[in-house]
Amino acid sequence: MTGRMEVRAEFRVQMVRVYSGLLQGLEARLLTVEVDSDTRSFGFYLVGMADSAVREGQLRIQNAVRNAGFHLPRCRHLVNMAPADLRKEGAAYDLTIALGLLAEAGILESDLLGDFLVIGELSLDGRIKGVRGILSVMDLADRQGYRGVIMPRANLTEALWCPRVKAYAFETLREVVEFVMEGCPEEVASAASVLRPGLAAVPSVPGGVAAQRPLQQVRGQALAKRALQVAAAGHHNVLLMGPPGCGKTMLAHAFPSMLPPISSEEAWDLARIYSLLPETSERTGYSERTGYPDRTGYPERTGYSERTGYSERTGYPERTGAALHRPFRQPHPSVSLPAMVGGGAWPMPGEVTLAHGGVLFLDELPEFRRDVLEALREPLEQGRVMLNRHRQSVCYPAHFILIAAMNPCPCGYYGSSGNRCRCSESLVMRYQRRISGPLLDRMDVVVCMDRVSAEEWANHDNNVAAPFPTPMQPLSNSTPAPERVLNAESKILMHRLVQGGGLSMRACQRLTRVAQTMAAIEGLPAVEPQHLMEAYHFRHPRFLASTHPGSLRP
Q1: Rounded Cα gap, residues 133 and 28, in angstroms
Q2: Span 125-151, pLDDT tens digits
Q3: All domains of the chain, ordered by start, with CATH?
Q4: Is 412's pLDDT higher than 50?
Q5: Where are the alpha helices (DSSP H) in 210-317?
Q6: Rounded to the nearest 10 degrees, what angle do helices 488-501 and 529-539 cross at?
């Protein structure tokens, strides 16, 4: 019996692994791009739960490799993106896949690529475009012990924020290939790794910073100024209520001037948050027209070389962006729910996260949609927002001070001097009840304002010194106020307020926190009765509609 022998060709299996970062909210997870080839067939296959933008990348990658002067063999290329159960979106993995294909073809040494995280989007001519979330990827490289991050040169400005990780920034695919062929020399690393410790400028966002106006320039409104002083010192939420033109918006815009300078930890969190936003020249300080860092907003212009983007005086990359301020976000009342708290198919940060470490100002509070206002409960209570999707849950930080302003009635003049209001009592009640009780319960300080009198206007001195002491470091939403115990008289008074004031447990806790802040401002070791009464006065100003319009003012 003659048997038939089947002869199969032996192929040497050599799979290449290149590493990148997969964004999941504010953090990044390690992404492994595995590339394998087979000369027995032809094609390009990409697996690993990639969206359409990632799958379309095969056409960009093939053209970019060819225009960079390299040729991939005609065979079957299989690219696997692990972990396979997490969806990948965007074009940030083009450079990672391209280097993996070149290493599989034998053009690059795959062992050298394993020391880096690689991220970048490719254009058809081989240029590398900037991507979002570069700081989260650099933080991942630091935690995982990688040598550095190979990234687009457009992201070099943001890379200055993370001096712990070396940034290898390139403008074209050919520059990256030459860098790996030369053995990945250390001197190519960006000077971001040797910058002196200190704060750089927060990447700017249009409308993200309030015009700085000293509080002492605001005429009158001593009660509202006192409330803002307490709010700045203890990180309390404030509701300003009064007729049109009494200064609510002006006081809110002056509030950031009372806050202390931003700390390095807060600045790092802000930089990572704003790094997640879509690529814009305002966010990075990078000029899309020239391909080099934009000179607008530079703290030091002397000796700057527009050709290289480096300082001729120091030899280090210049730090760009806006001046370093706490964020001030003022969304329009027509803002949607995802825009306020974050969301989308791939959850992006909303206004509450963009205001992290700063101020969220809601002008004309009753004009906001009810579901948008109710969604603020968790951020105000927990200092974070959790966004749950089918395959992904993201937690964004949201520690901010809420400053809200509203008119007392539709015409705006209920309870103000002059008796100009013509709204019926039922209409005023319906208007004020647009603000739910649970949200109102989370407002620590409520101030009813009136128009500035002629005497206050005439006697105001623009050159007067600031009447308030330097505020304390703002606290997070979930952090208690500085411990100031209640003395015996204060405990008796608190018991009476609880019995007769109808306070909820949350209201008692927040009232005590406000009183503790007042005692801390005065440097007293214990909370005195006058502190509790002032805090109760701010919390219950009797601003709701009643049979006596004049009762609006406390």
Answers
A1: 8
A2: 999 999 999 999 999 999 999 999 999
A3: 16-194 (3.30.230.10), 215-266+327-475 (3.40.50.300), 286-320 (no CATH)
A4: yes
A5: 222-234, 248-254, 264-275, 281-284
A6: 20
**Burial category of 529 from C-beta neighbours within 10 Å (exposed 0-12, middle 13-18, buried 19 and up):** middle
Here the tokens at position 420 are 């100009």
Nearest alpha carbon to residue 281 among 267, 271, 291? 291
Of residues 116, 26, 10, 45, the one with CA closest to residue 354: 26
Q: How far apart are CA 472 and CA 178, in angstroms?
A: 53
- State both tokens at 480: 């208690």
Among the listed ranges 3-7, 27-31, 128-132, 181-185, which one has the minimum average pLDDT value?
Answer: 3-7
For residue 544 the two structure tokens come to 């709701």
**Confidence band for 450, pLDDT divided at 50, 70 and 90:** confident
| pLDDT reading at 102 higher than 80 | yes
pLDDT at 466 over 50: no
On the 0-12 / 13-18 / 19+ scale of CB atoms within 10 A, 470 is exposed
Cα–Cα distance for residue pair 22/32, rounded to 1 Å: 9
Cα–Cα distance for residue pair 148/141, rounded to 1 Å: 7
Strands 128-129 and 121-122: antiparallel
Q: Which one-letter amino acid corresponds to residue 8?
A: R
Angle between helices 173-181 and 94-104 (to 10 degrees): 40
Provide the edge-to-edge strand list for the sheet that holds 166-170. Answer: 43-47, 76-82, 27-38, 16-24, 116-118, 148-152, 166-170
Q: Which of 14-23, 275-284, 304-313 has the highest mean pLDDT?
A: 14-23
Structure-token match 């006081």, residue found:
251
